[in-house]
Write a structure and sequence with these properties.
242 residues, alpha/beta, Ubiquitin-like (UB roll), Rossmann fold, 2 domains, 3-stranded mixed sheet, 12 strands
Length: 242
């Protein structure tokens, strides 16, 4: 009896008992209760992709132990979706998994095998097109693979800068030729940029903005057929419709 009393008074014994109790309680809660089961998947940032489609890509069924779910594996699965650019997966104990996605923004339309596809700023196919997509995105045609990446970077810059004329939505087609970029507007004005001056494409477009603004102010834009920015640097050649 005295030995029992001594053990009870021993702080190491008391501390060990408390730790064992805590360990047993945590173990029981983790493995023998529903407290930490996955009960909800919250999707944030999706516009074009449905919540159901995103959940399907995770391959989660619900009811999994939340602490056992690999966030990195879920992220890898979702990045395989053709419309998802970035993913952040957050675990909220006891039963919530939050998935934040950034969808790929369409940049243009690519015609392949007589079918139209929306493509991203990296030239990746995102999805098929709808008839109204032609109102917002130009068709792109690639004939020079060497400049492909810089070409898409330039188009991405142009699309994000709404203050320059012609605005991005004004183009019906943009062609990456072997030695030039050809912009074709919806009112059939052709604009030529020299390919070898890729570092100056933005500068040339700002000059083009001044030219187009001037002709709009003079009500002459409808009379223009061709604008060639591949003239001697700093100059442009304008051809009017006959």
């Amino acid at each position: 009896m005295q030995l029992v009393k001594k053990l009870i008074k021993n702080p190491f014994v008391i501390g060990g008992g408390v730790l064992f109790f805590l360990f047993f309680t945590i173990f029981y809660l983790l493995y023998f209760t529903d407290l930490f089961l996955l009960k909800e998947i919250r999707i944030v940032g999706n516009n074009k992709i449905s919540k159901e489609e995103i959940i399907k890509f995770t391959e989660l069924k619900g009811g999994e132990r939340l602490y056992k779910i690999s966030l990195s594996i879920i992220r890898e699965k979702l990045l395989k979706h053709p419309r998802i650019e970035e993913v952040l997966v957050i675990r909220h104990l006891p039963g919530l998994l939050e998935i934040k996605v950034k969808e790929k923004e369409p940049l243009a339309i690519l015609i392949k095998d007589n079918k139209g596809f929306l493509i991203s700023k990296r030239g990746e196919i995102i999805s098929g097109i709808l008839p109204e997509d032609y109102l917002f995105y130009p068709i792109v045609e690639i004939k020079n693979e060497e400049f492909r990446e810089n070409f898409f970077n330039f188009l991405s810059w142009l699309k994000s800068n709404k203050s320059y004329l012609p605005v991005y939505e004004s183009f019906s087609k943009i062609i990456l030729e072997e030695d030039s970029i050809i912009f074709i507007t919806k009112n059939q004005v052709k604009i030529y940029f020299p390919l070898i001056m890729e570092k100056d494409w933005q500068f040339l477009y700002k000059n083009l903005d001044r030219i187009v603004t001037y002709f709009y102010e003079k009500n002459l834009m409808e009379k223009i057929e061709v604008i060639r920015m591949d003239y001697p640097f700093g100059k442009a050649l304008i051809k009017f419709r006959s």
